[in-house]
Specification:
The chain has 84 residues and is mainly α. It has 3 helices and no strands.
């Protein structure tokens, strides 16, 4: 549950920041009569990088988990406390 809430708020923060950047660039250039498409370029670059990194992350998650070797000998809690 907390993991899902954290994920949703992260996406909300990403969307809010990109909207702020987009309209900040647009407002700055519009108020100064500067012709630019930087706000579109910025949004396109973010979406492209986001999709590429998300695809990479999903491909990493789909791989088999790494199996760790079991230790040859184990220690009980009492043995550990005696050694420490």
């Amino acid at each position: 549950m907390i993991k899902m809430i954290h994920k949703v708020f992260a996406y909300i923060m990403l969307a809010t920041s990109q909207i702020t950047i987009f309209f900040g660039i647009y407002s700055y250039t519009h108020n100064r009569a500067i012709e630019t498409t930087l706000h579109y370029v910025s949004l396109f670059l973010f979406i492209t990088l986001f999709l590429i990194l998300e695809a990479w992350h999903q491909s990493f998650l789909s791989k088999d988990a790494i199996v760790f070797k079991e230790p040859l000998n184990t220690m009980s809690d009492e043995e550990f406390q005696m050694e420490v």
